[in-house]
Amino acid sequence: MIGSPGAGKSTLASSLAKRLSLPLIHLDREYFGPGWTTPTKPEWREHVKALAARPAWVMEGNYASTFDIRVPRATAIVWLDLPRWQCLASALWRVARNYGRTRPDLGPGCIERFDLSFLRWIWSYPDKMRPKTARMLERLRPDQRVYILRSRSDIPALEAELATFREAA
């Protein structure tokens, strides 16, 4: 599951993992260590290789630098391509709700904070990441399914279809 910060990836991935009885992998939780420490690029790529090698999962997070590792292993890609204003509003609400605490989708000791550069990243996300994501999706194999959600109202239909897809697998 990919998309802008604030699009609802963590929430939807949690719901789908539970519904499909699959392990859930929050990439932010895997990437950020205590106090927002980060691995080196080689360490991160090796870690993602190990995560993607698991037999089945619901994985959420962007990290486009690891698309080449994760995407070939995915049977379905969900892209939450929501309007930037909606993502920004959701991220601000999330900060207000969790300020000073660690969210369950983040690493231990990663305290929620207000970060202006992160909000700028959300605003610029469609311009910077949409073309890269679209190119990645064009290269998928015929057996890989793609779901592009442009509204949260698309979620119930996606959940129903993926549950059917899982039963058939």
Specify the number of helices: 7
Number of strands: 5
The neighbouring-strand order within the major sheet is 1-4-5
End-to-end CA span: 19 Å
Strand composition percent: 5-15%
Shape: globular
**H/E element sequence:** EHEHHEHEHHEH
**Main sheet attributes: strand count, strand direction, barrel closure:** 3 strands, parallel
What integer value in Å does the Rg equal? 16 Å
Poorly predicted ranges: none
Average of the residue pLDDT scores: 93
Helix coverage percent of residues? Answer: 40-55%
Structural class: mainly alpha
Could you give a quick summary of the protein structure above?
The chain has helices spanning 9-20, 27-31, 41-52, 67-70, 84-98, 116-138, 155-168, and strands at 2-3, 24-26, 58-60, 76-80, 145-149.
Overall description:
This protein is mainly α and 169 residues long. Helices cover 50% and strands 11% of the residues. The protein has seven helices and five strands. A three-stranded parallel β-sheet has the order 1-4-5, with no helix packed on it. Strands 2-3 form a two-stranded parallel ribbon. It is globular, with a radius of gyration of 16 Å. The two termini are 19 Å apart. The mean pLDDT is 93.
